[in-house]
Amino acid sequence: MSTVGESFVTAAGLVVAADPRLLDIVCLSLTVSLSAVFIASCLGLPIGAAIAVGRFPGRRTLTVVLNGLMGLPPVVVGLLVYLLLSRAGPLGALGLLFTPSAMVIAQVVLITPIIAALSRQIVADAWRDYEEQLRSLGASTPRAACTLLIDTRFSLSTAVLAGLGRAVAEVGAVMIVGGNIEGVTRVMTTSIALETSKGDLPLALALGFILIAIVLILNALAHAVREWAVRRHG
Amino acid sequence: MDMIRRSLISAVAAAAVAFASPVSFAAERFITVSSTTSTENSGLFKHLLPVFEAKTGIQVRVVALGTGQALDMARRGDADVVFVHDKKAEEKFIAEGYGVSRQDVMYNDFVLIGPKADPAKVVGGKDITAALTAIRAAQAPFVSRGDKSGTHAAELRLWKAAGVEGDAPTGDWYRSTGSGMGAALNTASSMNAYIMADRGTWLSFKNRGDLTVVVEGDNRLFNQYGVILVNPEKHAHVKKADGQAFIDWVVSAEGQQAIAGYKIGGEQLFFPNAAK
Questions:
Q1: Maximum alpha-carbon separation in chain B
Q2: pLDDT, tens digit, 9 for 90 and up, residues A125-167
């Protein structure tokens, strides 16, 4: 049987057996990445809206920098966070290295620019359409930013999902700051890297299929919620 | 508007709950061991650690890197115990004051892996430097770890013994991959190249393709593993007592027996040799 076919069978077997270790790994992957997405959204959405609506010097430069940061290499982010959290680093005393918290921090650094840059674009487009109207109603700039964030919430959910996709799929950063410790910081992507290095390519690919399935399910859920919300609130 | 505010509030509340109750960030009793990809990839720790954890209640968290990187991690204070295999680098680590003392734990050996077609005609040899010389003369593809790991250091020493000047051989045929043992084996497997590997990782490696052991049994292929407690005087947070408990256990009769008991396909991977 081909490796791909073999992997499908292995993946199905793992899912049907509900392998407890696999469940732990999947849960950790989701906990870490959803936490990171939540924090990054709290930071990124207001930042994006502020840059879209605000009038301040250096705004164009900031937009270019923000767009550029969407391409941050995960390994570099991992290394920076590692040096920060290492015992010899400035935040070493917190003892966060090789914990899920360290992985959340790295992913927040990685995806906040993505969420901020995409939401800036979405809010800026809406701002162009509604600026006059909002101004005539006497809305202050922060007030306008808030209104637009709420108004474009369905489009913004795509920005958040882009962040989630990046978070749950990256391996470079979490490998460095998490250390891929079994039962503590081992997530889907680092498991895949480990099985690949053991030469167990079918198992690695099987885990990959499961990861892709999880991401698809998350996106389907988000889509369903959005549809439901659009129908309900228009 | 009210509807939206309410749904926003509930979404934030749900997310806050999700973040506040993640897996287990709780402090447990554990030590961090920086070790090598060879011990992790070969499955030894999976066999060994549950025995120790059941006995002492101390969880052992292993971060697997190349020996050079593992020692660097300990220098930064990010590990309590180092479990690696490059005696020279380990002695340097202790001389610098980062480690308390070093103890032998076990050994295995390196093997020269190569394609069954054997373009350099080295199969069955017992002399590793002669084999390397032949590979170099034939310019047959050779994959090097190139990552300052213990295996990489051993490989470079053998090239030196084979008369190579400078740090490493040069030429298109010599590919330095800068990757772990398993990743380098995957590369060698797809290139049909020669490669030096530790026997443990090789035995547990599944993507062999056309590769096989071509040279083994030379005394110079001996691979000694050592264990070191990171110096609490350099890093005050080092878990001295629990780290020492782990070291004492792996060199004890029970720990040594557990190491000897680890087999793949009936073949023993590591041979305990701690000083009595």
A1: 82
A2: 999 999 999 989 988 889 999 999 999 999 999 999 999 999 9
